[in-house]
Structure formats: structure tokens, C-alpha cells
Amino acid sequence: MKVSCVILPIHPWQRAAEIWRQAEDLGFHAAYSYDHIAFEGFENRPWYGAIPTLTAAATSTGAIRLGTMITSPNFRHPVTLAKDLITLDEISDGRVIAGIGAGSSGLDAAVLGGEPWSPRERADRFAEFVSLLDRLLTQPLTTCRGTYYAADEARMIPGCVQRPRLPFVIAAGGPRGMRLAAAYGDGWVTCPFGDDAAAVAPLIDSQLDALTEACDAIDRDLDTIERVYVSGFTPENPLASVDAFADIAGRYEDLGITELVVHWPEPGTAFDNDPAVFERIATEVVPALA
């Protein structure tokens, strides 16, 4: 199992650079940044942009993979996002992962001044968004007109360092999203929310069944898709102790998860875990899972 971390974009870069370098030094597979304009619980606190943060992280590290977790149509357009991702992939020498999701009806949903989308429209937009982003990142010139997004002679030269494009890790829970993950995803991500820790494993198990069914429908091998679990939003806390991490990582690996994502400890937030325990997990347990 791979183990990665989310680094919240809340610190001035002088401090943030130290964290990103430490994440690499600790041996994490990848470090992700949430791509939001604002984030619940941090509405009145500093919150920096994901793409500039990842660009700075790319110049401050040399091996760790870097990614969005997740970027969405809430305030992104496929054409401008594609250009940013190609540039970031070049700066990082091919270390970028694009975590992509439909977004939610939360703080970013109406930040550009429009009305929040219905669930159906959100799903429709997401499907079109992913399809167009894939085309933009795999061909030098794209012209396309959809219901929600268009590209007129959009040039993406020289393309991604990673070929045929940088990897997509697609967040999905329902059947339609699973079909997108099966069709376009190099990975699939789940991020359960709720107050019932005991419900997390059965939920992920059922989601993996749905992903398997979506892969079978297009004759794709499930093992060609990374299965990513972002923890931290239920009472189940893999960072509570070294033993807790080893137990949780083992259980989800047995379930079929191939990458476990934890949050960098941030005092006074929902991600307030003991930094000493976090470092022990990274140095003692994570290497044994590789």
C-alpha cells in the first residue's frame, strides 16, 4: 500500500515549503493540496491557491508526486486547467497527479456568482469536464463544443511530460461516476464523511464492487486503477497511534485500497494530531507497507 498526505494550503510559503520538503523526506508517495476557493472550517483563515502552491512545491522537492485533491468544475474550466496542469507537469518533471471530482454544493458552489447546480446538472457537467480535459491533455489542438464547456482551437503544446497525459484520479461514489473512473481514471478516490466509523469499511467495500462492475462493463482490469482512500472525515482516525495506523492500513489494504491518504497535522483544526506520532508512523510503519 502507498501512503500519501494532504497538506492544507494555509501557511505562508516560507513555512509551507518546509512542510512539503519534510513530506518528501518522510517518504510519502504523494502530497496533495485541496483545490478550493474556501474550505469549511477555514472560511476566515488564510487559504492559498492549489496550483501556485503545487508549482512552488514542485520547485522545492525532487521526487515526491504532487497533486490536486480534488479539483472540480465549481470554478475551473477544462481549457485553463489543462494549460496549468501541463505547465505544472513540466516544472515538476512529470510528478503531477490530477485528482478530479464533481465538487459539492458547499462554499465553492456559487463563488463565481451563479446559482448552485442541481445534482443532475453537476453530474452532467462533471462528465463533460473530464472528457474534454482528457482530450485537451492528449492532443495538441482541440476544438469541441458541448452543453457546458467549449474549446476553440485550444493549443496544448508541448503536452504533458507524462504520456499520453498525466494521471487522473477520479472521485466517484455513484454508478455514473464509477463509469467515468473506469473510462478515464488512472485512479479512483473515495472520501467518506459521517459520524459512524463502523460504516466506512462496508461503504468502501460496496463502492469497490461498483467500480469493479464499471470496469467489467468496458473490459478493463481493476488492477490498472489505483484505489485511493482519503481519511480524516469520520471518527476512524489512522493517526491516533502507531497501532491504529497499522490496523487501519492493513484492513483497507485487504479490502482493496492501494493508497491511503492522511492529513498533515494542523493544531487547532479538525486535523489536529500529534506530530510525533505522525512522524513515527511515517518512519516506522509506512516503509513496511511499501
Verbal overview:
The protein has 290 residues and is an alpha/beta fold. The protein has eight helices and ten strands. It has helices spanning 13-25, 50-60, 78-91, 119-138, 175-184, 200-217, 242-255, 275-289; strands at residues 2-6, 30-33, 65-71, 96-100, 141-145, 150-155, 168-171, 187-190, 226-230, 259-263. Helix 4 runs parallel beside helix 5 (175-184) and helix 7 (242-255) runs parallel beside helix 8 (275-289). The longest helix has 20 residues, at 119-138. The protein is globular and about 55 Å long. The protein starts with a strand and ends with a helix.
Brief rundown of the structure:
This protein is an alpha/beta fold and about 290 residues long. About 40% of the residues lie in helices and about 15% in strands.
Feature tags:
40% helix, 8-stranded parallel beta barrel, two-stranded antiparallel sheet, 8 helices, globular, 290 residues, alpha/beta
List the helices and strands and how they pair.
Layout lengths: L1 E5 L6 H13 L4 E4 L16 H11 L4 E7 L6 H14 L4 E5 L18 H20 L2 E5 L4 E6 L12 E4 L3 H10 L2 E4 L9 H18 L8 E5 L11 H14 L3 E5 L11 H15 L1
Parallel strand pairs: 1-2, 1-10, 2-3, 3-4, 4-7, 7-8, 8-9, 9-10
Antiparallel strand pairs: 5-6
